[in-house]
What does this fold into?
Amino acid sequence: MCPGGIIAPASTAPGEVVVNGWSPSKRNNPFANSGMVVSVEQEDMKAFAAHGPLAAMEFQSAVERACFDAGGGRLVAPAQRMVDFCEGKFSKSINSTSYLPGVKSSDLKDVLPTSILKPLQKGLIEFGKKMKGYYSNEAMLVATESRTSSPVRIPRDKETCMHPQIKGLFPCAEGAGYAGGIISAAMDGERCAEASVRYLENL
Ligand SMILES: Cc1cc2nc3c(=O)[nH]c(=O)nc-3n(C[C@H](O)[C@H](O)[C@H](O)COP(=O)(O)OP(=O)(O)OC[C@H]3O[C@@H](n4cnc5c(N)ncnc54)[C@H](O)[C@@H]3O)c2cc1C
It folds into this structure.
């Protein structure tokens, strides 16, 4: 959750829309934003099986391209009001957001795979039951933060944290597929640093 935060463009290639969120230290922006994470399982990627170990990358890329197309270009992101999203209604009007390239009212069911759409709808309704005022059409959903963790994993031994073929290489944290987010990346970094010290001591 980023109080006083900003939704920022985070695409890395033409033809895709990816967003992320952050807060300036003064937390003085009129908006707040938070990313909602949905687990993606191997079986959700059946349609991309032909891409082998890169199936998850292609799955992610397909969602990012769908967001770009729905926004209509220039990094405009598709967006929908929260209650409309959960009830499957098109938002006739939308609120302004902190996302500077702009947002376009879109039916996010045409952008997100069902395996992401359904748990997101269910989760938002559940949050609303626990936090007064959370479930509201004032809240805008902006699609999509698709890079919370790496879609590929570099192999490593469970005990030594070392690559099975390359001695002295410790695939670590988010880019290597062992973390998603600040805390899990920091914890994995600590684990790998300790493992590499043990390796060096035993040389
Ligand atoms: C805008 C934004 C907002 C985010 N908000 C949150 C949040 O609210 N909460 C949360 O939990 N996570 C958030 N994240 C994710 C979080 O930043 C990452 O999960 C975390 O930084 C991953 O840590 P890491 O050490 O695996 O990788 P990184 O922090 O990316 O570190 C990798 C380092 O490797 C360096 N590097 C790359 N290539 C080379 C090379 N060839 N040689 C030498 N060095 C190299 C890079 O310069 C970098 O310093 C956010 C990310 C972004 C971009």
